[in-house]
Amino acid sequence: MKQLLVYMKGYAKESVLGPLFKLLEASFELLVPLVMAAIIDTGVAGADRGYILRMGGVLLLLGLVGLAAAITAQYFSAKAAVGFAGRLRHALFEKIESLSYTQLDTLGTSTMMTRMTSDINQVQTGVNLTLRLLLRSPFIVFGAMVMAFTIDAKSALLFVAVIPLLALVVFGTMLYTIPQYRRVQAELDGVLGKTRETLAGARVLRAFAREDAEVSAFEEKNAALARMQRFVGRISALMNPLTYAIINLAVLALLRTGAVQVDAGRITQGELVALVNYMSQILVELVKLANLIITLTRALASANRVSAVLALPAGNAAMGNTQGALPAVPAGAPAVEFCGVSLAYENAGAESLSDVSFRAEPGEIIGVIGGTGSGKSSLVNLIPGFYPATRGQVRVFGRDVKDWPAAALRAKVGIVPQKAVLFRGAIRENLLWGRSDAGDDALWAALACAQAKDFVEQKEGALSAPVEQGGKNLSGGQKQRLTIARALVRKPDILILDDSASALDYATDAKLRRAIREMEGGPTVFLVSQRAASIRHADKIIVLDDGRVAGIGTHEALLQSCPVYQEIYHSQFPKEAVCTKEA
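RESULT FIELD:
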């Protein structure tokens, strides 16, 4: 929690004025029982209607001033809490953006969403209530005890006995419920994760008629969360009745003691009423304090979860000085070089890539092919440094990727992932992700190369045509071509197409490959595909099998020497396999 206090900077004035105005309100509230005692002992006892009206006016004035102080305190507290939460949410989003793929895979999307929404909202509420009530409630409790001593020391001893007992109940409940609320938040992560997974795969669920199974799985997780919340809720709910019981027993004892004192003439009836009012004030404030502590326990649990994410090292920390200058490129260095590279994902039982070595010269087109799960995407994700190699070196233009500033390395690489991701906005806005200062001519050139120019021209508004979140108003092929165009706008030195043309027909795929080969500047291109036809004309083909290199060479050479490539190719072109056997 201490780590988060830095985000309160700039709200020092509000953090001081909020509690101060609350204490001012509390001071006026402590005066009310004394005024009531004066009304009873002087006004009512003496039948002095004028005195009663004057003191009634004093009560009204105390109420109005207290109301003004309370509203002012609420304003400053809310301003500080909302500003703090806004800064914290911004810092957390920046931290999430800086995390590596490994860290994001480990934490999970649902966990990050919970931190950004539920946890920060809990912390915001905790800060608001802390500024308003954390000082006010103890001030009222101990202030009421002090005021009771000014009336009658013997009766006030009851206050001394009751307050520690109430504190034991309140703080004992708090210490028990703090770890339980952490477990509740963890269960909430599971429910959010299941919900997100189900919504993302809604079409698949319906296609395989798995709705009932998913409903049962969700109900199981939701029931576990509900059980945990009920359990913690029952423990927290004991606080209010226990405090009420203690206070009411104390009031009974006070009335009995006070009646004896009044009968003996030691205190007046008005002073006894004031003592009861002070005891009632303690009851109300301790109930508030109990509810505040319940909220604070949840806020502290949420704050610790947010702090844990903020304390993570930046994902690019392993890539040298992220703000450093570009490293010098040795003359004649290959565009990409793998030297005995192996990769094992976090908490994985085995390596996804083992002892991979190859060179890709500037301007070469490298095909990467293999069966499902052979490590194709893992291989190309090592080039921009999305994952660190477990063993060996990945070099880009002669320098280890760890020595490159992250921004500089990724400025040289254009990557189109397997899943086409577009953002809400216009087509132009999505393309400008590649290079923010690109003009319309450059955008149209990239669209033409990506074979997307025709369908963009047909849309109303062309480059200004709207794109819904995730590109839901576009077909699969259109989304893929736009994501390819977005990468081409950057004019990268290395272009990675990770199975990004799977939704294109063979004719469009062939035109795309031809256009990329003829691109000005001749980038080094990595074509990842499960289609042999897509990579057969590559300068070099890397064949992967269960994370290992099964063969490297041209299409013709691999057909002669690589059984894995032969199997893939002949499974897609069976007629050629038959002709070869007959020959």
